[in-house]
Amino acid sequence: MSNSELKRANRKTAIKLVLATTTMFFFGYALIPLYDVFCEVTGLNGKTGRLSSQEVSQMAPDESRLVEVEFVASVGADLPWKFYPLVAKISVVPGVETQVDFMVVNNAQYAVTGNAVPSVAPNEAAKYFSKTECFCFTKQSLKAGESRKMPVRFVVDPDIPRGVSLLTLGYTFFEALDTAGLYPPEHTYIN
Amino acid sequence: MSEAAAHDHHDAQSTGLMRWLTTTNHKDIGTLYLLFSLTMFFIGGSMAMVIRLELFQPGLQFVDPQFYNSMTTMHALIMIFGAVMPAWTGFANWMIPIMIGAPDMALPRLNNWSFWILPFAFLMLLSTLFMPGGAPAGGWTMYPPLVLQTGDAFPYLIFAIHFLGASSIAGAINVIATVFNMRAPGMTLMKLPLFVWTWIITAFLLIASIPVLAGAVTMLLTDKYFGTAFFSAAGGGDPVMFQHIFWFFGHPEVYILILPAFGIVSAIIPTFARKPLFGYSSMVYATGAIAFLSFIVWAHHMFTVGMPLAGELFFMYTTVLIAVPTGVKIFNWVATMWRGSMTFETPMLFALAFVVLFTIGGFSGLMLGVTPVDFQYHDTYFVVAHFHYVLVTGAVFALMAGTYFWLPKWTGHMYNETLGKWHFWLSTISVNVLFFPQHFLGLSGMPRRIPDYAVQFSDFNMVSSIGGFIYGASQILFVVVVVKCIRGGKKATDQVWEGAQGLEWTLPSPPPLHSFTEAPDPSSITGGNR
What we know:
Number of domains of chain B: 1
Order of helices and strands of chain B: HHHHHHHHHHHHHHHH
Number of helices of chain B: 16
CATH architecture of chain B: Up-down Bundle
Helix content of chain B: 55-70%
Largest interface: A-B, 36 and 41 residues
CATH topology of the largest domain in chain A: Ctag/Cox11 (Pfam 04442)
Strand content of chain A: 35-45%
Number of strands of chain A: 10
Number of strands of chain B: 0
Oligomer: heterodimer
Helix content of chain A: 10-25%
Shape of chain A: flat
Largest sheet of chain A: 5 strands, mixed
């Protein structure tokens, strides 16, 4: 190989490899939507589905069994809220829409916006659990000292495996990111 | 080195410091990489000494927990990115051109850059030790949300990693371009020494995995300062997602650290057994298989995050499958020695210790790869014992072996064999005193990254610390050997070792600054034997 041919070959190899490097950088970012698609398809990672009431009415309820659903509520570290379910546990017929209520109280002396993130355990059951209405679909703003009853309507799919007789629905309220950090952390709270 | 440069009149454009700053010569750059990595080995090593000192007894003695955690974090980052990775690039720079009959690396200016990025990157990383909030202390794996609590050091950590990544990607591009375009006529791919083969595969691993790490740490940076929520549950993100992305880089990374070691051991064992390497082509394919598998096993680092059963099984099976190509390599090395005329000079001793001790690390890796038992071992000292067996008695021992093996070629002098043997035996005994008891500590439940521990762990920790201090001190002996060898000693022959084969041994010791400006005679190229 002559000197100039070699230079050209080296340059070509280098350009190809830089392109490969760039592609892999963006592949790192692409992993996030890819994982999301993967979780949605498989129902892993405790992510739950969302259905309309109409779709639920077309389900054939399985009256022969009951599934217990437990409720857990927690609050992220920086959010001055109190948050709890009004019923701890309920038995439902798969395929029948059920409503439960959660209570949230803003203990701060200022308005705060929060975001509720749901999770269902065990993972395998998450894809059989769907909500038709939930306070987690939108951000929730509470004025200073305000309390609010928040409903969740959900349905357990009749196809849920026989082995699953207990589900846990958990919510964690986080301060909405766009408002987080606007208040000094030493702000006094109403007890 | 400077003497060799003075003799070389056709490359006399700069001398002194400027020569090293502006050099585009692969041998000079190789030397810079190796000296830099030796320096980092001692900085990272002194942090390990702080860790072992604090763990000598239960209770908090010498450092506060935050600083202790900085020590474990910085020790890992410095040893991985500062000691082992640059050392391999140094070996690649020095050896690959003279192994394949090329005059230099393909992209010499890029080569100069990729080295000189490193000192600045580590200046940034080490400066965090003096910053408000202290150095990064959330572990080298940088899991959010903990890592986001790092103080002023945080952006320095992220940008240091960007720079280190850029440096090693540039090095990888250079290696691939050199091997693909600049092999001497007659040096076919299946005649390449295995060190070159393992380095090409390492280079592809670097190019495929380091950019993913760059992406992951950039996401951390934007999560902390620019309001994104990749890993923040509050904004709809997921902290476990970071672990998936990180280990998508992290597992190939551990093979980046070890594959060139396989290449070096494959060069040393045939030399001192005076037999061609057993199963050359199976070694090439086994390396390729390991590299491929390294991309589909990442979640075995996170069995306990709450993965579904199907995931646990998939990652367990693929992980355990890696034992097959790795076993092929171990058996090939043993078969190479079978009925060989073996002698036991220092490089051979280190290579043999590598085979035995790396295999121990491989077996504890198998144990960790089995999901149900990993639930017990996860985040305990068993993991610490495992990865130090594969990285210290694996990668670092291979680096030592390779240094003793080629030091006469680099300097033109034989090193002091007696001191070399002392270094070997002190290191090998003490490193086992240091890490073997950590298996027991882990199995009985001592967690990693904790400065204090329950009193029942006292005895093994004390033993481990004593081993650690001896191992650390023994490495000073290594510096003595290297410095003595650079300054003088018995003149080395061209071939250096009786059983040595390959192009680099046809050059004088030390080789002139520019070698193989004319391609070597194709009939002198034999391959497939190391």
